[in-house]
Amino acid sequence: MLAGIVVAAAAFPVAAISGLLAKAGGEAFGQLPDELTVKRSPQISYVFASDNTTQLAAVYDENRRDLPLAEIPDVVQQAILAAEDQKFYDHNGVDVKGFARAFIANQSQGEVQQGASTITMQLVRMSLTYSLDTKAQEVLAATEDTNARKLREIRYAIALERRMNKQQILENYLNTAFFGNRAFGIFAASQVYFDKHPKDLTVSQAAYLAGLVKFPSSTDDEKGKRAALERRDYIVTEMANLKKISPEQAAAAKAEKLVILYKKTPNGCVDVSANHWGFFCDYLHRWWLQQEVFGPTTYDRERQLRAGGFRIQSTLDLTTQTAAYNAAIKQAPINLPQALLLAGIEPGTGKVRALAANRNFKLDDDEENGPNTNPKAPAGSKGSYPNTTNPLLSTDPSFQGYRPGSVMKIYTLVAALENGIPLDYVINTQAQAQSKYPYKLEPTCNGMWCPPNSAGTAIGPHNMWTAFGSSVNTYFVPLFDTVGGDKVIDVAKRMGVTFYDVPDDPNDRPGTGTKDDDFYSSVANAKIWSPFTLGISTHPPLQIANTFATLAADGLYCAPTPIEAIFTFKNEKLDIGGKNCTQVIDPEVARAAIDAARCPVGDSSTVSKCQGGTALDSRKIIGKPVAGKSGTSDNESTATLTITTKQLAISGFLVDPDWPDTTQKMKHKGDRGINPAVQMAMRDAMAGKPSIQFTPPKNQKLITGVQANIPVFAPCASVGDVTAALKGAGFRVEVAKGTVPSVCPAGSVAATNPTVKTLRGGLVVIQVSDGKGPSPGP
To answer: The whole model's pTM is what?
Structure first.
């Protein structure tokens, strides 16, 4: 085949080659060296949805999928043999007569006209290339036209025939040979040129493919295409001469008009079968690169994925993914700068079920993408819409996420429960909270952080049910201070929240030049970082979804995974990517937290009363028991809603990835609002699934704490007398600001809140009468 055969023939005339063959029985000559192992050549890895049937993506360096010889039809085998090695079943690795014939023909023509490399010798050459650890000099030595290379091929071919039978050699050859147009092996060639499985090829198609092995790039122009058809006809003729097909079959094969498709085999996440699967595919790819079992470096892991021939059954649930994507693009068309992001995860398993965005998963295109919205971006720069491959939804060191807002109050709530503060713990909330810790960035009160409530938030006495339901900032800031920020952040970390080592943004975070993780890892710093409870740190939707999934699973944290199962090319299941769960929150604490988290989304507490909610229509729309929380960052630059059922948690973010501090206000309700998107996604994903109730908490210490009766005092008593009585009973006492309608004389006590009993040592708020109306309700 190669020009080097002329030199090889000259150096090793027929008599010499015959002598070598005679020595084939000798162990030294006929033994394969260590450097030649017929390794399986690089294979396509396939990624499937959770149904293990729907293909999401193919990933490869070389477009190849090996087939057993039994799945390669005889017509294909005979076409290859007619084209490349008609004496294949007669020689023991080297065709001596063919070698001599080629030598004489080439000498008479003065150039290479005939080849003499058998299929076995060609397989040796290809195997050497794949077996040499890709060292450039060794690959060159395996392919260059030299006497040494030719002699080595002859020796190894003879040795290979002693190790493998003819069927094994032919199978390896058919799976390794290059057919042009990035098609390696007969399976890929059948797909690329005819979009068929090899078993469905006609005689004409099989002969056409067989002719490409010698000239794999010959079809690139019209002349080459004609030559390929001429070679097809030659091979068909040879098949007839060898009695492998009938004359009638040969005539029909030559007359068949071939439609050559040159079909591109999709490769990687930008070529997923449905574009909106791309963000999940990318998440799986990034997950793979972090798994040391696939190699010591990311390069090694990438090579394993792209050459290992794995069958990867992912966790992507097509119903959930479709529901999430449809909801995202309905609420926010893909041409908007605002990104609507939805991440879904399964409680109790960590299986990532959906990652959807109102974006095309596509390389950024300066011609298609809109202008960057960030005023600090270079003039004329483009934004990440509608096309991007950035990891907008999942955890990655290169991506911090966004400010989730008040949904982060959940960590303070859980930490409070863990530290003996029950759900019924009352704080007399004000319009503005006065933290006991300093803060350098936002407007402060004498240097101390003092955030206000959102507009319209009811102030006064609140417990955790009502404060979480109505998202009362001025409840959770003092609660954070009481519990201790280090304990709150410890809860967050146990539930999967990460803080990446990235340079500090002086506009958002305390200090100068600190690192996020360094800062939060410091107990002293964490204690004073009250803004954490209102969601000022940055996190991706998947982490927040998994927080609520952890609580829905009774405190069982499961590391997010994109993997149902991974099978090797030999169909061996790998023990990686499966369920990896740890009990990080006491089940009763988790159940108590879920009980409070039912209030914001219009569900009902099983042990108390909800009051207010920021997404009250969620329970009605979804039609299942739900818990969750909305969130809004400073200046409404981010809007979020997270909802969980027992079977699925979805977190939705509405953000501007190019300008996280955008002045564009993100909406919760109505068109282009995040709430309807999350609600629709959950409704459609859960359609037809059973309604499973959350397990109610039973531990009264977590619900009400140790209760004590509030002293009975005379109607319309003085504030001083009631205060003394309450303090004498061990209660904390506050007098409400302002007055309430009451028949009692102005300035006297109209009522207390609570009225009958409350947490021992807890807060009792005295309500003062205005003397102008009926008594206030309880």
So the answer is: 0.86
